[in-house]
Amino acid sequence: MNRPSDPQGDGELERALDAALARALVAPALPAGFRQQLRAAVARAAGAGASRAQLRAAVEREHAEQLAALRSGYVRLRQRTLGTLVGAAFAAGLLLNFALPWIRAHYGDSGVFALPAIGAAIGVGLSLRAWWQRSSLARLLP
């Protein structure tokens, strides 16, 4: 059930939220000369006498260019990821091709079962490390 908001309590809640966000989030630094570039761009737009439709078309064109750049970066990232995955699979197969006869010679037929166990332990260890680095628990500890 929706309740109407209390206008007197909203101000205090918003101030508390703003303070918490200011503590938690750090504002990124602006590039050098950002304010001057912004003022110059606003002055050019105002001085050009461009209509609202022209300004809207320019903004939409810039948005489309940025979206195209973002998509091309995403495609490059996917290609690099696929290349890394294929390379890692090839390296693992090559390593297994050389390591398997050595393991059988030293540990017998039951030594083959050690490979998946070692691989699983390494995978779990790496996953836990990545999870710990991204979790909020790691930030709580000094």
Describe the protein's architecture and organization:
The chain has 142 residues and is mostly helical. 80% of the residues lie in helices and 0% in strands. The protein has five helices and no strands. The chain has helices at 7-24, 34-47, 52-107, 114-134, 137-140. The longest helix has 56 residues, at 52-107. The two termini are 43 Å apart. The model has no long low-confidence stretch (mean pLDDT 81).
Question: Given the structure, what is the number of helices?
Answer: 5
**What class, by secondary structure content?**
mainly alpha
Secondary-structure element pattern, one letter each: HHHHH
Main beta sheet: none
Distance between the termini: 43 Å
Portion of residues in helices?
Answer: over 70%
Which oligomerization state do the chains in this entry correspond to? Answer: single chain
Taken from the alpha-carbon principal axes, the silhouette is elongated
The proportion of strand residues reads under 5%
Annotation, overall tally of beta strands: 0
Which regions contain 5 or more consecutive residues with pLDDT less than 50?
A: none
Give the overall average pLDDT: 81
Task: Describe the secondary structure blueprint for this structure.
Layout: H1 7-24, H2 34-47, H3 52-107, H4 114-134, H5 137-140
Q: In a nutshell, what does this entry contain?
A:
This protein is mainly α and 142 residues long. It has helices at 7-24, 34-47, 52-107, 114-134, 137-140.
